[in-house]
Amino acid sequence: MSESITSALQIPQSLRSIAHYVKIGAENADRDPIVHYWCLFYAVQSGMDIGKKSPEALQYLTSLLSILEDMKKKLGGEEALTQDLVAQAHIENFAMKLFDYADKNDRQSNFTKGVIRAFYTAGHLIDVLSLFGELDENLIS
Fold it and tell me: Which cellular compartments is it found in (predicted)?
Protein backbone atom coordinates (compact mmCIF):
# COMPACT_ATOMS: atom_id res chain seq x y z
CA MET A 1 0.00 0.00 0.00
CA SER A 2 1.45 3.38 -0.93
CA GLU A 3 2.31 5.97 1.70
CA SER A 4 -0.47 8.32 0.57
CA ILE A 5 -3.05 5.55 0.90
CA THR A 6 -1.75 4.59 4.33
CA SER A 7 -1.93 8.19 5.54
CA ALA A 8 -5.44 8.45 4.08
CA LEU A 9 -6.52 5.66 6.41
CA GLN A 10 -5.57 7.71 9.49
CA ILE A 11 -8.88 9.51 9.78
CA PRO A 12 -9.57 12.18 12.43
CA GLN A 13 -12.29 11.30 14.93
CA SER A 14 -14.60 14.04 13.65
CA LEU A 15 -14.59 12.42 10.19
CA ARG A 16 -15.10 8.78 11.23
CA SER A 17 -18.33 8.58 9.24
CA ILE A 18 -16.36 8.78 5.97
CA ALA A 19 -13.97 6.00 7.00
CA HIS A 20 -15.93 3.32 5.12
CA TYR A 21 -15.53 5.13 1.82
CA VAL A 22 -11.84 5.83 2.33
CA LYS A 23 -11.25 2.18 3.23
CA ILE A 24 -13.20 0.86 0.23
CA GLY A 25 -11.24 3.24 -1.98
CA ALA A 26 -7.92 2.10 -0.53
CA GLU A 27 -8.86 -1.57 -0.93
CA ASN A 28 -9.49 -0.94 -4.62
CA ALA A 29 -6.50 1.32 -5.30
CA ASP A 30 -4.71 -1.28 -7.41
CA ARG A 31 -7.69 -3.34 -8.55
CA ASP A 32 -9.89 -0.49 -9.77
CA PRO A 33 -8.46 3.05 -9.61
CA ILE A 34 -11.78 4.50 -10.80
CA VAL A 35 -13.63 3.09 -7.78
CA HIS A 36 -10.75 4.30 -5.60
CA TYR A 37 -11.02 7.82 -7.01
CA TRP A 38 -14.78 8.16 -6.66
CA CYS A 39 -14.85 6.69 -3.14
CA LEU A 40 -12.29 9.27 -2.04
CA PHE A 41 -14.18 11.99 -3.89
CA TYR A 42 -17.37 11.03 -2.07
CA ALA A 43 -15.48 10.96 1.23
CA VAL A 44 -14.19 14.49 0.65
CA GLN A 45 -17.65 15.77 -0.32
CA SER A 46 -19.19 14.19 2.76
CA GLY A 47 -16.33 15.32 4.97
CA MET A 48 -16.77 18.93 3.88
CA ASP A 49 -20.38 18.75 5.02
CA ILE A 50 -19.67 17.28 8.45
CA GLY A 51 -16.34 18.26 9.86
CA LYS A 52 -14.15 20.84 8.21
CA LYS A 53 -14.13 23.01 11.33
CA SER A 54 -11.33 21.27 13.18
CA PRO A 55 -7.76 21.84 11.97
CA GLU A 56 -7.14 18.06 11.84
CA ALA A 57 -10.22 17.48 9.70
CA LEU A 58 -9.32 20.31 7.35
CA GLN A 59 -5.76 19.03 7.02
CA TYR A 60 -7.03 15.50 6.39
CA LEU A 61 -9.51 16.61 3.72
CA THR A 62 -6.78 18.68 2.07
CA SER A 63 -4.54 15.60 1.96
CA LEU A 64 -7.35 13.61 0.32
CA LEU A 65 -7.78 16.38 -2.25
CA SER A 66 -4.05 16.15 -3.03
CA ILE A 67 -4.37 12.40 -3.52
CA LEU A 68 -7.34 12.98 -5.85
CA GLU A 69 -5.37 15.54 -7.88
CA ASP A 70 -2.42 13.14 -8.20
CA MET A 71 -4.75 10.35 -9.28
CA LYS A 72 -6.41 12.56 -11.87
CA LYS A 73 -3.00 13.38 -13.36
CA LYS A 74 -1.92 9.75 -13.29
CA LEU A 75 -5.11 8.45 -14.88
CA GLY A 76 -5.03 11.14 -17.56
CA GLY A 77 -8.04 11.34 -19.82
CA GLU A 78 -9.85 8.36 -18.34
CA GLU A 79 -13.50 8.83 -19.34
CA ALA A 80 -14.75 7.54 -15.99
CA LEU A 81 -13.10 10.57 -14.36
CA THR A 82 -14.20 13.20 -16.83
CA GLN A 83 -17.71 12.07 -17.75
CA ASP A 84 -20.25 11.55 -15.01
CA LEU A 85 -22.36 9.11 -16.99
CA VAL A 86 -19.37 6.84 -17.64
CA ALA A 87 -18.30 7.08 -13.99
CA GLN A 88 -21.79 6.29 -12.80
CA ALA A 89 -22.03 3.23 -15.06
CA HIS A 90 -18.60 2.02 -13.93
CA ILE A 91 -19.38 2.27 -10.22
CA GLU A 92 -22.87 0.86 -10.65
CA ASN A 93 -21.45 -2.13 -12.54
CA PHE A 94 -18.83 -2.71 -9.83
CA ALA A 95 -21.47 -2.49 -7.08
CA MET A 96 -23.82 -4.85 -8.90
CA LYS A 97 -21.08 -7.45 -9.39
CA LEU A 98 -20.40 -7.37 -5.65
CA PHE A 99 -24.08 -7.53 -4.80
CA ASP A 100 -24.70 -10.41 -7.23
CA TYR A 101 -21.77 -12.35 -5.75
CA ALA A 102 -23.04 -11.79 -2.22
CA ASP A 103 -26.66 -12.54 -3.13
CA LYS A 104 -25.72 -15.79 -4.89
CA ASN A 105 -23.72 -16.95 -1.88
CA ASP A 106 -26.44 -15.87 0.53
CA ARG A 107 -29.04 -17.90 -1.38
CA GLN A 108 -26.71 -20.93 -1.18
CA SER A 109 -26.39 -20.45 2.59
CA ASN A 110 -22.70 -19.57 2.29
CA PHE A 111 -22.50 -17.08 5.13
CA THR A 112 -18.91 -15.90 5.31
CA LYS A 113 -17.24 -12.64 6.23
CA GLY A 114 -16.51 -12.15 2.53
CA VAL A 115 -20.21 -12.34 1.67
CA ILE A 116 -21.12 -9.88 4.42
CA ARG A 117 -18.34 -7.57 3.30
CA ALA A 118 -19.53 -7.73 -0.33
CA PHE A 119 -23.06 -6.69 0.70
CA TYR A 120 -21.64 -3.93 2.86
CA THR A 121 -19.32 -2.63 0.13
CA ALA A 122 -22.05 -2.73 -2.52
CA GLY A 123 -24.28 -0.64 -0.26
CA HIS A 124 -21.58 1.95 0.27
CA LEU A 125 -20.89 2.12 -3.46
CA ILE A 126 -24.57 2.83 -4.01
CA ASP A 127 -24.09 5.79 -1.64
CA VAL A 128 -21.22 6.95 -3.86
CA LEU A 129 -23.56 6.84 -6.85
CA SER A 130 -25.56 9.65 -5.26
CA LEU A 131 -22.78 11.97 -6.47
CA PHE A 132 -24.27 11.69 -9.94
CA GLY A 133 -27.84 12.62 -9.06
CA GLU A 134 -30.89 10.63 -8.10
CA LEU A 135 -30.50 6.89 -7.93
CA ASP A 136 -32.35 4.53 -10.26
CA GLU A 137 -35.37 2.97 -8.52
CA ASN A 138 -34.32 -0.52 -9.68
CA LEU A 139 -30.94 -0.06 -8.06
CA ILE A 140 -32.43 1.05 -4.76
CA SER A 141 -34.75 -1.94 -4.56
Answer: Endomembrane system
Write the CA distances from 68 to 10, 41, 83, 96, 135, integer angstroms: 16, 7, 16, 24, 24
| Of 85, 57, 81, the residue nearest 69 (C-alpha) | 81
pLDDT in single tens digits along all 141 residues of the chain: 555 555 567 899 999 999 999 999 999 999 999 999 999 999 999 999 886 678 999 999 999 999 999 999 999 889 999 999 999 999 999 999 999 999 999 999 988 999 999 999 999 999 999 998 876 666 555
DSSP 135: P
Q: Using CA atoms, how far apart are residues 125 and 139, in angstroms rounded to an integer?
A: 11
Amino acid, single-letter form, for residue 91? I
> How does DSSP classify residue 130?
G
